[in-house]
Each structure stands twice: as structure tokens, then as C-alpha cells.
Design brief:
Blueprint lengths: L2 E5 L2 E4 L4 E8 L9 E7 L6 E6 L6 E3 L7 E6 L4 E6 L8 E8 L13 E2 L3 E6 L1
Parallel strand pairs: 2-11
Antiparallel strand pairs: 1-3, 3-8, 4-5, 4-9, 5-6, 7-8, 9-10, 9-11
């Protein structure tokens, strides 16, 4: 059974940076065969796509709201995917989730992901 654990959340001021990490374990197949996505959910809002990376990291996709500020990367030797978040804004405040899908290609909808972590809280103060 796939297990995803997010870390790195916290409270920072607007304009600051945070780096989130997602650790993958338990998959029956090689980590590089899973695409990984980051999503976020603010109180009272639906879960929304943030970024995704294909199994080989050859394909990366970002939501328009984070382009130029966030960078997703993966280390297939360490089974991790990181999300570097710069120039943070109060509207980035949310619980951030990483998710895995048993397909190498990226996707931007939650329903296309098979496994989810528990999430990590990111709070940006103005």
C-alpha cells in the first residue's frame, strides 16, 4: 500500500518561502512509475491543483496562480518530491497535500490520483 507523508509546512510572512517535501513508500512498483501532484485546500474551498511532475520529471505542470513562484522537483533515488514555494501570499494559505497516481503522466484533477497524504498546513501572514 502506498503511503505519502508531507512535511515542511508552517507559518511565514508574506513574501517569504517554504519548502514542502513528500516522502513516498510502500508502492508495489518503482517510484518513478508514479506521477506526483501537489494540491491545496483552504477552509470552505474545494481542493485545487498546485503542481505535478511526471515519473521521469520530464513533464511538469503548474497552476496559473503559482507559476513563477513555485517549483516542483523529485528525487527518484530518495522517493521524494519537493515543492519550493517563494514569494508567498496570504492567499496561498491552505492545507497542502501530495498525491500519487499509478501512471507516469501528470494530471491536474484530484480524481485522477490514487493515493493521498494527510496534508501539511501552510499559513501566510500579511
Amino acid at each position: 500500500q502506498v503511503h505519502l507523508v508531507e512535511s515542511g509546512g508552517g507559518l511565514v510572512q508574506a513574501g517569504g518561502s517554504l519548502r514542502l517535501s513528500c516522502f513516498f513508500s510502500g508502492g508495489a512498483f518503482s517510484f518513478r512509475t508514479y506521477a506526483i501532484g501537489w494540491f491545496r485546500q483552504a477552509p470552505g474551498e474545494e481542493r485545487e491543483f498546485v503542481a505535478a511532475i511526471s515519473g521521469s520529471a520530464g513533464r511538469i505542470q503548474y497552476a496559473d496562480s503559482v507559476k513563477g513562484r513555485f517549483t516542483i522537483s523529485r528525487d527518484n533515488a530518495k522517493n521524494t518530491v519537493d515543492l519550493q514555494m517563494n514569494t508567498l501570499k496570504p492567499e496561498d494559505t491552505a492545507v497542502y497535500f501530495c498525491a500519487a497516481r499509478r501512471v507516469v503522466l501528470v494530471a491536474d484533477t484530484p480524481g485522477r490520483y490514487d493515493y493521498w497524504g494527510q496534508g501539511t498546513q501552510v499559513t501566510i501572514s500579511s
